[in-house]
User: Fold these one by one.
Assistant:
Number 1:
Amino acid sequence: MSLAPTRTPSSVTVGDDLPELAIPLTRTLIVATAIASRDYQDVHHDPGLAVERGSKDVFMNILTSNGLVERYVAEWAGPAARVKKIKIRLGVPNYPGDTMTMSGSVTAVDDRLVTVDVKGINSLGPHATGSVVVELPEDAA
């Protein structure tokens, strides 16, 4: 997804769908983002210990999932928009070698605040579901 021009309240309608975004889930992405967010839990970077603890492989941490949800909506909203609230629930793990496809839909427009319901789905099912509230800049006069 390329960076969109900033959206304004008059350019957004309830029911608008965001373009899908496919995110390849590489081992590097999962491990590097866990370390970058200072999440040193071994299940996010050590395959052997992840398996020993009952997982099939290392898996993405919640901070990375949250960041990818924010990125998805923020890129759609444009550079002048401000993320005000993110609320997600994790489902199935994101494992290396899979792809998570993000999708979203505008569910509320209240003055400059826009609520977008989001889903991140991989081959196992829903990984992240929730909503993001963004504040859009005022319409030009």
Note: The CA atoms of residues 6 and 80 lie 6 Å apart.
Number 2:
Amino acid sequence: MQEYKVFQISKDEIVPLAERMKKNGVFLVMVHGFIDKEGRMDISYDYAVNPVIESYHVVGEMKVPSIGSIYATAAEWPERELNELYNVEFEGLDVSKRLFLPEDMLETQGKGQIMVTPLSELVEKNVK
């Protein structure tokens, strides 16, 4: 069974941690995000520190630095997904195009509304 360790960090520790992990040859497994029981955003950075998965959580932040310049696509895709679905802003991340959602989807009040608004209300109706 894979051992799993959880740590809480601040948003200021995200980049130095990623740089240290990359320098040591540690793989980024995934960047996850969810809303916790208190309604706060919880962003986790999971690293394969053999034989352990170390999960570093940043809680309550909606604006954090991107680690895409350190881990390339392994970080960029999950960061873009969290931006699109939860409106988490990753500083330095290119979000000029949508990752999953259709380009004709209405811009709602803010971003990240896909998680709380039915799709039928988000798609523009082209009436001629």
Note: Residues 74 and 82 are 13 Å apart (CA to CA).
Number 3:
Amino acid sequence: MNTLEDIRTRSGLADLFEGQLQHIGIAILMTLGAVSLLEPTEGASLLGVSSVAWAKLSISLAILHQVIVALGFRTQLHLNWLTKRFGDNDMKVWALVFIPLLIARPISLIMVGWADATPITQFATLQMLLGLALLAPALWALHSTFKHFTIPRALGGDHFRDAYAQMPLVSKGIFAYTSNGMYGVAFLGLWAIALLFGSWNALVVALFQHAYIWVHMYCTERPDMDWIYGNRAALAPTDDHA
């Protein structure tokens, strides 16, 4: 495992952008694909805003969230940027940016589903049952993240303090079965929202958001974990930072 001081001594300006050209390219292609799948619904809206407009807003917020997280993680990991400016309050300031954008993802998706009048299928009862089935593990993953993984670690604490990187791997709750509890399981809650609303446009946005978080994982977080954990990166908790 490398200390943060050691990482900042060895890294250069180019390391700030590792994987980000891929991130931008994939984000553009995914956005074009998702928008092309959205279905306009005549006369249906929420607060005067159509489902398609809510969907585009939800997609935009997800992109904004992950771009800001990439900037925050990289500048903190390689330049200690947040700590230099905010001192011991660095993680508190980061939380004030990170958490509202994270919460906006399911809330904006709910608005998409609420405004949408385009059904996914004609089997509404089956959709709802599947939605409930996905919601259960998603809530368990969130509970496990709050209780066992803890919010500071989920915020990317190992980019701020060596002590977080030195903590043992979490092996309780959902993490007893997968190291990707947040990305792999908690994000199933987005699919559950779409299915419970029976909304095609919400399903498209859920697909986008779930796929896009894995772009963050491979383009931003995996390189960061390689820096922080070295050979331990394959075993380190590789998600729950975004």
Note: The chain has one domain: 4-234.
